[in-house]
């Protein structure tokens, strides 16, 4: 029978599932295995479901459906990361309310997820820009504030001159460009809100150890981001008799510097200060030239060699406390908020210091205090290795290795005058969350104009609603800004910053556990039962920030007792899978390098490849990140409308392992379509053969072929289950489906296989494919039930198949071939054909099998029907 087209199948089953939700039947649903939380990174509602979304949501949908079928109480929610710049820009450009724009996009994308047959818990949906949600983002902020994790600080911030907003350090790339606009970021000083993520840095670092189901690569990225350096803090004193006035005016009598190389202390030729170091700032008031330098240097890159020598100012090296001979520079290469914002300059051993020294003290030889352990340094070069030997300039420490020498010097100085001590430093900075933008959660703080300072908005007044507006910053709305102080009732104004959208996404998975709670972020019990997330799937581009912020907030929430913290020290995610990018098939004119539109080539002859219509030459094909300018984008919805959701889902899983780049080639979907047609024809032939729905198989009546088919099906159950349960090898999953379908079709063609085995095998096939191709599975299932004279009930109320291989007793006595893990190892006389498995294993072991089975356990004993052989599967 021709059956329905795949696209018609989608429609048919979508409709039926709407009125008979496949999960409504709580009575039959067995959730004995406990909860399973499958989370996929929620999308930004751009309005278009792109191919990357299709990939991630297919993976999560398949795994959620599989877990549900296996008896887990699954939560598989969806939501929208709905605040952020694009809505605001759309508002400004097109004069539409960002809320209207966002909600209509959400509407469109929900429908697109429906088209892909994603089975989502829509009753748990969260939308971060809805007041019901951001009320609690605001409450979370106040909780952080009240626990001392949120504070205000004047800071030099990264200013994106195009987007006109402050950016977090993380949003600026190595070249100093904004991740948003690509513009070179400027430095500006503003009062900002920070979250003290560094307070939890030790835990964030240590607990990477408990995340044994995270990709190594992601953990390494997080570790490097936190960037813990072991080293020392060294203090350089000002001459107390000098007249620089620092001591009296600022209470400053020293400069502290962090170093990872205390072994180079004898080689300090200068000290350099950051532009905003208190000493730099104080001196800039005395020296107009320095003030001018600071102004200019602000916008210089961090690798600039510029410097300003503070005239007449000298420090002493703690090794020689009374000699004030170290000059002091102000230099943009010193980072203001790393270490102490000061560097002990060792131009003899550090490349950056060397470049700086050469620029600012041309011709003056740097001090060299360490030599390489083995070879020598070429003339004109410096030794910057960390594994040298201290030379004769290092006095009593000469001859020690860098490591020993560094420790010995710290010990010595700390005893001598306490001016050195061991410390560690982090690269991680506190999280700057203030944004001067409109489309975000307003920071729920009030600035009293009388005496109360900064006061949190009382809980009963939350949420602080965004005013209606078309994207202008909140500071421009007097109606929003003007308020009264909750403490004294006097005049006050609201904080006009909104929160970084990473704040919205740092806790959304908690909200899924209790999405409608009107009073709290979530209920303690609910979150403590459902968290941590068992499996999180998303793009590797979120490996650092989103995941680090989520870990921080989750640990904070555990610390404040909002949830139990689970069994992973408050970690929110047990297992993480980062799916690879989807690349598009890109056509290039080899002569000009020009990207070609699909309509510019003739692809009617697959043998020759795509011919460029205008030149008659063959176009080059490559696979590249999808972009409009390369005409290589793919529209998932279009693919689904022409091939059906099932085929599209299977295709995207089949093309590459989940973590690899996937080269999207739509025409290859024909292989999947052929397979799905074979599945339906297996169902049809099973019915044509005459249904035998006997529930118990009578093993003694089975033919050798029956047993073979049966056991192959069982093996596939095992492999497919492993792929879905633990390995997440979704591409081999699809090839296993294809092999199993072949096996069953072969069985159907054979005259000696029995209908009972075929019926059970076909049923099993449908169940196994149901997570990936739900409409085809349901269609086949309905056909089988109908042929059996039964009413349809959904295949999703069935339990996941369990393998039960048939073991057949040895029928012939005499010499048997012994096969271990597929390899024939020796021959053995077996006379007792009714020998038990255990006796048989003992017999094989004692007759030379031990050698082949050393350290292994026997997983399975197979006695092929009627053949003089025994096969052992051992691991
Ligand atoms: C002396 C020295 C000698 C250094 C030498 C290195 C090599 P990591 O490993 O990244 O932590 N440093 C310290 N504070 C700084 C700041 N605020 N801005 C720029 N550089 C700073 O780097 C630590 C090293 O970076 C420190 O060790 C210091 O230079 C520099 F042969 O001290 B070192
Ligand atoms: Zn007040």
Brief sketch in words of this structure:
By secondary structure, this protein is of the alpha+beta class. Zinc ion is lined by residues 448, 450, 452, 485, 487-488, 490.
Low-confidence stretches: none
State which percent range the strand residues make up.
15-25%
Distance between the termini: 45 Å
- Per the CATH scheme, the topology name of the largest domain is Isoleucyl-tRNA Synthetase, domain 2
Question: What's the gyration radius in Å?
Answer: 35 Å
What share of the residues lie within helices?
25-40%
Number of domains: 5
Beta strand count: 34
Description of the molecule:
This protein is an alpha+beta fold and about 900 residues long. It folds into 5 domains: about 35-130 and about 500-580, Rossmann fold, CATH 3.40.50; about 230-425, Valyl/Leucyl/Isoleucyl-tRNA synthetase, editing domain (Isoleucyl-tRNA Synthetase, domain 2), CATH 3.90.740.10; about 580-635, no CATH class; about 660-795, Isoleucyl-tRNA Synthetase, Domain 1; about 815-875, Ubiquitin-like (UB roll) (Roll). It contains 25 helices and 34 strands. Strands 8, 9, 10, 11, 12, 13 and 16 form a 7-stranded mixed beta sheet that branches. A 4-stranded parallel beta sheet has the order 2-1-24-25, covered by helices on one side. α1 packs across α24, α19 crosses α20 and α23 runs antiparallel to α24. It is globular, with a radius of gyration of 35 Å. The model has no long low-confidence stretch (mean pLDDT about 90). Zinc ion (ZN) binds near residues 452, 485 and 490.
